[in-house]
Amino acid sequence: MIKTIFFKLHLRSVRLASPVRYLAFFAIIVFAFTFCACDKTLPPEPFGAIPSQELVDWHKMEYYMFVHFGPNTFTNVEWGDGKEDPNVFNPTDLDCRQWAETAKNAGMRGIILTAKHHDGFCLWPSNYSTHTVRESLWKNGEGDVLKELSEACKEYGLQFGLYVSPWDRNHPTYGTEEYNEIFVKTLEEVLANYGDQFEIWFDGANGEGKNGKKQVYDWNTFHTTVCKYQPKAIHAIEVNGIGSSCRWVGNEQGVAGKTNWCTLNNPSERTMEILGVGEQGGGFWIPAETDVSIRPGWFYSPETNDKVKSVEKLMDIYYTSVGRNSNLLLNVPPDTRGRIHPADSIRLMEFYHARNELFAENIAEKAIITASNVRGKSPEYSAMNLLDDDYDRYWAADDDILTASLEIDLSQEKEINHILLQEYIPLGQRIVKFSIAYWDNGWHNIVNETTIGYKRIVRFPTIKTSKIKINIEESLACPVLNRVEIYYSNVYTNETN
Predict the structure, then answer these.
(1) What are the pLDDT digits (tens) for 327-386?
(2) Would you say the C-alpha torsion 136, 138, 139, 140 has a positive or negative sign?
(3) How are beta strands 368-371 and 404-423 bridged, if at all?
C-alpha cells in the first residue's frame, strides 16, 4: 500500500512546477503516514496498578538465596540476645566465592545476606556499633563479610542484596528516638559502600519479650534512605511496614496462596490472609516473596545436617511459590567454617536437576494455538505469540472481551500433567479465574483455578490428549498472556498444598 502511494506520487510530481511539486510531495507523505497509523491496532492500555521496570526485573529473578550467618551460627541458637562475646564469630575457612558458586550452579539469580540480625552483630566494621566483625577474632578484626560477598556476587554474575534487622538487642540506644538516627546511619554504611543492591530486606521484629524494649520505627526515613543510596532496590518488610515494594507471603513454609494478586490497597494494613493472597484490583503493585529455609532453622546447626529438606519437598515449595506468582527466597545457612555444608549444596544440585528434568521438553513448543478473539484481528497479537521466547510479545483480546479461550493443538496425543501460564504484567494483572480442559471425544474439564500473574504452574493427574483448551472465565480487563508451556513428569504430579 505505502509503495503504491509513493509510486503514484512520483508520477504526478514530475509533471508539477517546482514549488507546487514539493508542497504536494509533503502533503501526500503526511497523508500516507496518517493512513498507515490509522490502520495499526493499538496495544491494550495498562490496567490498574502496574510494576516498575525494577519490579518486572525482580519478578524475572524468580529464585535466589537467603544467607543467615552470624554469631548464632557459632552459639547454635536462632535468636541471639546481643550479649554474646564478639569473639565467638570466628569462621575458620569463610569463602563467599563458594556461596556464590553454589548459588550460581543451583540456578539461583542472587544472594541476600543477613548483614545484621536481631542480636545487633554487624558483619561489617560499622562505625555505629561495638558489636561487629571488628571486635571479633576473625581476621584479627580486619574482615568484612559484606565486601567479600558483594565481590563474589559480581564475579559470578549474581544480584546482591542485604537483610538488615531494625531490632537490635545490643545497641544501648534501642528503644529511644536516638536509635532511629543510629539505624539510618547504619543503613547509609551498607547502602553506600558495597555496590548495587537489588533488594533490601527489613525484618519486622520489635522488642524483647513481655517487658522488653519497644522501638517506634521511622519507616518513612528508612525508606527514604534506601531510595537515596539504592534507588533501584526493592524494599521488603516482614509483616507490616509502609513503603515496601514487595511483601512477605505471611508464612515461613514456602506456601503462597492459590489465589495470589500482586496488588494491595493499603500497604500498611496487612493481615496474614492478605499477605498470602493480595487484594484484587489493589491500588499498589506489591507482589509476594516466599522465604523458607532448606533446614528446620534459619541458622546452621550440626544437629540438622540430616534434616535438610528432600528434593520432593523442595519441588513442592517451588510449585507453591514460583508456581503461584511469588518469588522464592531459599535460605541456605553456612556452617562454622563459613562454607555451605555438603548436605545443603548436594541437595541444591539435586533440586536443580529435578527442575531441569521437568522443564526439559515443552510439549507445546510446536503446537498450533488459536484464540476465540485476537485484538483487532492483528497478527501482532496472535495467540502464536504465546510460544515466542520474546518476553514482550503477547496475545491480547479486544478491549470489550473479558472472557476468552485458547485452543492448543498438539497434532498428536501426548501425556501431560503440567501447564505453565504467564500474564504480561507490564500491562497489569487482570485474570480473576480460568479453567483448563482436554479433548477426548469432547471437552473434559481438568482444573478450575484463579489468578495467574507473572507465572502460574498448574499440575494435575496425567492425561493423554491431542488438544488443550484454556478458558479465561473472568478478567478485570481484556486478557493479555505472553507464555504457555506444557510438560509431562512421571514424578511430580500431585498437588500437596
Answers:
(1) 999 999 999 999 999 999 999 999 999 999 999 999 999 999 999 999 999 999 999 999
(2) positive
(3) antiparallel
CB atoms near residue 283 (< 10 Å): 13
Q: How far apart are CA 481 and CA 383, in angstroms?
A: 9
Whole-angstrom distance, CA of residue 217 vs CA of residue 132: 22
331 and 163 in contact (C-beta within 8 Å)?
no
Beta strands in 315-427, from DSSP E residues, in sequence order = 326-331, 368-371, 395-396, 404-423
Q: What's phi and psi for 430, nearest 5 deg?
A: -125, -40
pLDDT in tens, 202-231: 987 887 766 678 889 998 999 999 999 999
Would you list the DSSP string of 371-396?
ES--GGG-GGG-GGGGG-S-TT--EE
Interatomic CA distance for residues 371 and 212, integer angstroms? 61
pTM of the model: 0.91
Query: What residues form DSSP beta bridges with 438?
Result: 444, 468
DSSP letters spanning 292-306: EESSSSSS--GGGTT
- 132 forms beta bridges with 122
In b/e form, how buried is each residue of 349-372, taking b as 16+ CB within 10 angstroms? Answer: eebbebbeebeeeebbeebebebe
Comparing CA positions, the residue from 136, 127, 26 lying closest to residue 74 is: 136
